Amino acid sequence: MQNNWKEITVQDLIDKGEAVLKTGPFGTQLKADEYVEKGTPVINVRNIGFGNIREEKLEFINKDTVDRLSSHLLKKDDIVFGRKGAVERHAFINEKYTNWFQGSDCLRLRIKSDTVLPRFLSYHFLTEQHKQWMMQQCSHGATMASLNQDIVSRIPVTIPSVEVQKKIVTTLSAFDDLIENNTRRIAILEEMARLIYREWFVRYRYPGHEKDKLVDSGTELGEVPEGWEVRKLENVMEHYIGGGWGKEEKKEKFPDPGYVIRGTDIPGATQGDISEVPFRYHKVSNLKSRKLKEGDIVFEVSGGSKGQPLGRSLLITNTLLSEFDSNVMCASFCKLMRVDQEITLPELLYLEIMEMYDDRRIMKYQVQSTGISNFKFSFFLEDLNVLIPPKEIQDKFAKIVRPLFSKIHLLGKKNTRLKETRDLLLPKLISGKVGV
Asked: 3-state DSSP call for residue 378?
């Protein structure tokens, strides 16, 4: 640490009026029946990542509730902690999440200082030293780590001058800006693939459509181009099987190593981020029948939550597989789906599933039992009608969309490398071991 750095705690800032801590609304203030399908997003503990927001499984409240509890609206540069479970995590609130709502199971730190930058604090909270400190303070033998205002107020931080803080933030933010730029490009590429799919296979404006006439399919698909076939999903599958989980450590009956993609990993892996996919050991036969290859679809069949139906899916590409240094399979609460590519493209089924997910048609196959949602996969296979375009149209579509999915996962790979480099640099800059 350099000589001009000083050690402070969050409480020191609070005592000087330069920081404010606020706990989320109590359960009596924000009740379960006040959540709605659309409205102001609520950040709960499950939405808190490592300096970022995880947007899956978001909940919402309406304007009346927001107005009544407006003191819990988040502002730019706020720092949000989860009170239960993932206490080593935090979310830094940027422009995108301004005026989102602080959930009941969260703590908010708002900095009002001219000498301490909120972004610098956020980077400090990403260091392994801080994470370990939080876990030690919050565990105390409890089954679930718990965080409160007292613990947050005692967080120690080593602070340089504000000028040095600005330089450190600028350096580290450059990586985050590149990551965010790549993420936006990924979103554009995803939308391009979906727009082309809708244009060709929903509106039937594919190349050469002018000379084709529409005929009644005799199904809920209505009129389809003449010569196009309709089959049940089960009749286009080459292979499907439930996932596995294996063991954390290598054992005699579990000798084969392999990563396991869970439902919770799907949003990140869709964008090429595999950083949290667990590594396990498996029975030889289990991994052999479940090993993922290009063109496979990982399909979530159990779990889910209010506002997030089952059916999240991931298209496997060679670019994505190249990120792993071992075999990959899907987890127990997912299915491996492998279409017969002599019949149809995996990209067609994947994009159809995405459309069904977005417009909630997928919920037809979901059933709730004992608090957990389950997907009626067998019924899904028997019931869903799949449109099979002629081979030449499929080939033209593949030439357009396959490079898009490959580019998505390539950008995801770049983001992984940027995060690795940033995370190597971060502790050295934040501790003052390396000057800016």
From this structure: helix
* CA–CA dist 116, 364 (Å, integer): 52
Average pLDDT over residues 340-344: 96
Q: Mapping DSSP to helix (H, G, I), strand (E, B) and coil, where does residue 215 land?
A: strand
- Measured CA distances, 57 to 54, 263, 277, 292, 353 (Å): 8, 12, 18, 26, 18
Coil vs helix vs strand at 274: coil
Q: For residue 147, what are the contacts with CB-CB under 8 A and spacing of at least 6? A: 81, 82, 83, 84, 87, 107, 134, 138
> What order do you get walking across the sheet with 79-82 strand by strand?
19-23, 106-111, 79-82, 90-92, 50-51
**pTM score of the predicted model:** 0.81
Spell out the residues 6+ positions from residue 47 whose beta carbon is closer than 8 angstroms to its own.
Answer: 53, 54, 55, 56, 57, 58, 91, 103
For CA atoms 134, 139, 145, 150, give the dihedral sign: negative
Residue 277 token pair? 């996919």
Q: Which of 225, 266, 224, 259 is nearest to 350 (CA)?
A: 266
Rounded to an integer, what distance in angstroms lies between the CA atom of residue 373 and that of residue 366? Answer: 7
Helix (H) or strand (E) holding 434: none
CA distance 42 to 65: 11
Ordered by where they begin, the domains of the chain are 6-159 (3.90.220.20), 210-389 (3.90.220.20)
The helix-helix angle for 391-431 and 346-358 (nearest 10°) equals 70
69/79 Cα distance (integer angstroms): 19
pLDDT digits (tens, 9 = 90+) for 256-295: 999 999 998 998 898 888 888 999 999 999 999 999 999 9
